[in-house]
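Per your request, structure below.
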């Protein structure tokens, strides 16, 4: 999500990443914890839950658009975080898990909350004031591309390969196709598009920070995510009153959109994502990242009546192809599990 997410959305949103450049990858078991995959206890086949997660994150951009029709972007983000935190907090209570301890851990989580939740969620909300939700969803899909580029600079152990560098080039060519570069970007709202791209850039920045500071922290994914969302909510609770005033009315449809965005797009999505990784592994679960822009585009066109030129789906396909190439790794490489908080 926010989302890629997911990654991704990654929409969404503490998780772990199987590879150092997957900004929207799903969670993996925390270091030091059993990695045996539990049996499916939900009663739903993992493919059904995979589809539900794709739909939730894909529709998140539509929900942001509907929410900002009546509420300020910061208010939409604050509401999203409040309801998302409530869902995760309820699960923490049911499972009797405690929040992590230690001032240092909380300080690092505060930075993670800023770059993985508070800032990108807010940037997407502001972006959708002037750009369609379809474009925002496609911009979210560039997170793996940003992650690849940043990891080459910030992660010395993440060596580039020809395939991954080619994927980076192909992906950004896809971005230029989506934006209609050959037409001089005519008809494009530059500010909104830049905000959406910056939002997608926040995810790999936050993830790299988390990798350097919280990897091997020893806390459960659920515990870290609960603390991270709580801190992100606190950050928005401080900022929102400074830049907005209380709404004079509360239209039902935008309000329900914000509730769904938080409870489903942030809270439930994380729980689905974590369960999928536990059952089918991170490699399969992270493929949800590539369905999000497709669903976001379809939802924007079908529900909101947003216009769609040929360059948008073609460019999106190129972006996803490039992103897939940046995810490729040598078969002999066995990535180590690392702690990574929720992004979507």
């Amino acid at each position: 999500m926010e989302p890629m997410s997911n990654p991704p959305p990654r929409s969404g949103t503490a998780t772990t990443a199987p590879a150092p450049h997957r900004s929207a990858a799903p969670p993996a078991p925390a270091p030091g914890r059993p990695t045996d995959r539990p049996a499916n206890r939900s009663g739903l086949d993992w493919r059904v839950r995979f589809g539900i997660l794709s739909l939730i994150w894909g529709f998140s951009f539509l929900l942001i658009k509907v929410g900002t029709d009546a509420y300020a972007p910061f208010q939409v983000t604050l509401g999203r975080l409040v309801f998302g935190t409530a869902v995760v907090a309820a699960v923490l209570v049911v499972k009797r898990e405690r929040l992590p301890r230690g001032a240092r851990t909380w300080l690092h989580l505060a930075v993670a909350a800023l770059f993985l939740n508070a800032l990108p969620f807010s940037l997407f909300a502001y972006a959708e004031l002037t750009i369609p939700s379809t474009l925002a969803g496609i911009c979210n899909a560039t997170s793996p591309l940003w992650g690849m580029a940043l990891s080459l600079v910030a992660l010395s152990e993440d060596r580039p390969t020809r395939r991954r560098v080619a994927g980076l080039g192909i992906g950004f060519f896809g971005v230029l196709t989506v934006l209609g570069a050959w037409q001089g970007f005519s008809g494009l709202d530059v500010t909104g598009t830049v905000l959406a791209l910056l939002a997608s850039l926040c995810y790999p920045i936050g993830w790299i920070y988390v990798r350097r500071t919280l990897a091997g922290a020893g806390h459960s994914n659920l515990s870290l995510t609960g603390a991270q969302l709580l801190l992100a909510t606190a950050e928005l609770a401080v900022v929102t009153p400074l830049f907005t005033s209380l709404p004079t009315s509360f239209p039902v449809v935008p309000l329900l959109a914000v509730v769904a965005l938080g409870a489903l797009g942030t809270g439930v999505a994380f729980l689905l994502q974590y369960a999928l990784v536990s059952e089918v592994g991170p490699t399969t679960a992270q493929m949800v990242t590539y369905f999000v822009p497709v669903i976001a585009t379809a939802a924007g066109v079908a529900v909101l009546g947003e216009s769609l030129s040929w360059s948008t789906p073609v460019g999106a396909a190129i972006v996803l192809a490039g992103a897939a190439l940046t995810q490729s790794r040598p078969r002999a490489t066995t990535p180590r599990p690392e702690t990574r908080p929720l992004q979507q």
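Residues 252-280 form the longest helix (29 residues).

Regards,
D.
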